[in-house]
Amino acid sequence: DVISAVDANVSKSIIENCLLDFLAGKTRVLTTHNLSVIRQADRVLFINTDGTIDFGTESELMQRSTGFQSLMKHKNEVVERPVNWKMEAIENSGSDAVPSHKKHNNEKEGLLVKNEERAVNEIPLSLYWNYLTIGKGSFWAPFLAVFVAAVAVFMELFSNVWLSYWIENKFEQLSNATYIGLYVMFTIGTWIFVSLELSVIGYILSYSSKTLHIKAIHSVLHTPMSFMDSTPIGRILNRFTKDTNSLDNRLTMFVKVFVHMASTCIGILVLAIIYVPWFAIFMPILLSLFVVLCNYFQATGREVKRVEAINRSFVLNNINEILNGLNTIRAYGSQSMFTAKNSILTDRMNEAYFVNEISRRWVNLALSLLATFSVLVITLLSAARVFHLSPSSAGLLTNYMLEFAQLVAVILNTYTMTENEMNSFDNVSLRYREGLPLVLKNLSVEVNGAEKIGICGRTGAGKSSMMNILFRISELASGTLTIDGLDISKLGLYELRSKLAIIPQDPVLFQGTALGRGGLIKDVEAVKSSTDIKSHKFHLDTVVEDEGSNFSLGERQLIALTRALVRRSKILVMDEATSSVDYETDALVQETIAREFKDCTILCIAHRLKTILKYDRVLVLEKGELEEFDAPYRLFTKGGRFREMCASAGITEADFH
């Protein structure tokens, strides 16, 4: 029903300019509750309550179908009856507005989907420190890990040093049993402290990952609805799938490898200086070349990895859109278009991945050459016999320098991978989109308790925005909104929303039963005695599928009305609450509302103006500003925007009486 939720002018424009003009050469099928367009249809298909069908022109159906006659009769009736209402207070004052005619030069204004931000340049050391300490909140935790790693490396290196002492029998006073015992002790100590090192690092990082995940969930669940509107679901899925896996598994593994390998390399360099002091002269040159090479590789690898992460979000979002719109895609035969789009997005993601792998292979080769040169230097110094090294010590040192050549490449890879994974959860704070024009401008309204207010205006005038700020789905830019003198911005969301009832334009039902999902548990005893309800096809134990997909939109609106009846809130908000039901059902709904909510304050957004003609006052919005606010009949008689809307809807003075 493409015209149920728009005002009369927009509805008329859709019918005349789109259906009757632009699509004149097409077969057009319109399902609608708006009976005013029936006369413009060539033929009408009417579905009776028992499922039978009547098909013909309007005049033919008026002659032979009693159901159609009854429906057309309700179309022209005003169904509300006058009710006496009594008192309680709401106040809303809007914000200073930028004139609507002002030109905005900010290119980000009005973006439906916010571009994903990407950090640039190197990651600050403070981010690493926060990551290491965020889990347990302990300042000493990183230092404990470093201390255990240092002891583990000492045990690992000295076990081989002790083996060289045993081979050359450096301490002649010691027996073979003593050598063996000490060697076994150092070997067992190595195993114990390496295990302890990995356990401490894993313990710290697991708590850091858990804390970051909790903070990310909290941020997403408490972000304004505007964030959900402007952020593709694929981007959020990327944070909680690939990036969460990086925190839980990949990052932990990389940090463990990096810490142990870096400690081992430092130990090897210290050991080389102890054996060959002249190596200390060459070491600054070696470290300088190593740092230059690392920085050169990181500058590329870091940015490429970030580009890959962003492109992965596009891939996930595209897959999600395809799954959600699969029926529409098949109906229009657009499978090939979306397949091609998915291939393009996947290729873009893989391009970044391949560039990253190629650069990694290049740096491995460069590091291997650098480390091999270091082995050459230490070997020449050992062979010069300047330091009188024994064959076993020279062999040990050469072996460690060969190992150093391999470790350097591993360290760079793990450090770069650690840095690449660290950018995932950097931007966790969320805020309302800035730069967009104000939707409500200088709006000041006071509503009395138990007063019935109809809200109308052209499509996009800001009617639903009033409901958004009442439920704090969107926060005010400035001004205040109070209920019974309490500023709602000072109330908790649960406390505020539990006191309000709403019948939205598009109600959402969760999976379960109507009893549980509609919130009707407290009224079970009341409905059990109703034989009419028992005989109806809809029961309280009726299964509700996900999002209420087994109910029509009109049925979901009626369930939302029932939920509002049960809650007995003092403030009822209706946002096009009957836009998707027929006129007869609309009449019953309005009669029920007038009877059951006579002591409640009602704010009703309506495009069917007849539903609000008997309300206490009508608020007319135009481009987010208050245009008119008075009793319906007074607005009609004095002319103005409301009178124009009534004329477009075919409402005459007789409809007010």
From TrEMBL:
InterPro entries according to UniProt: AAA+_ATPase, ABC1_TM_dom, ABC1_TM_sf, ABC_transporter-like_ATP-bd, ABC_transporter_C-like, P-loop_NTPase
Subcellular location: Membrane
Record bears the keyword Nuclease: no
Domain ABC transporter positions: 423-648
Topology class, membrane: Multi-pass membrane protein
Cellular component GO terms, alphabetical: fungal-type vacuole membrane; plasma membrane
Residue ranges annotated for the ABC transmembrane type-1 domain, each copy included: 143-420
CDD domains: ABC_6TM_YOR1_D2_like, ABCC_MRP_domain2
Keywords: ATP-binding, Membrane, Nucleotide-binding, Repeat, Transmembrane, Transmembrane helix, Transport
Gene Ontology MF terms: ABC-type xenobiotic transporter activity; ATP binding; ATP hydrolysis activity
Transmembrane segments: 139-167, 179-205, 257-275, 281-297, 362-384
Name of a matching Pfam family: ABC_membrane
Family according to the record: Belongs to the ABC transporter superfamily. ABCC family. Conjugate transporter (TC 3.A.1.208) subfamily.
PANTHER family documented for this protein: ATP-BINDING CASSETTE SUB-FAMILY C (PTHR24223), MULTIDRUG RESISTANCE-ASSOCIATED PROTEIN LETHAL(2)03659 (PTHR24223:SF456)
Name the record gives this protein: ABC transporter
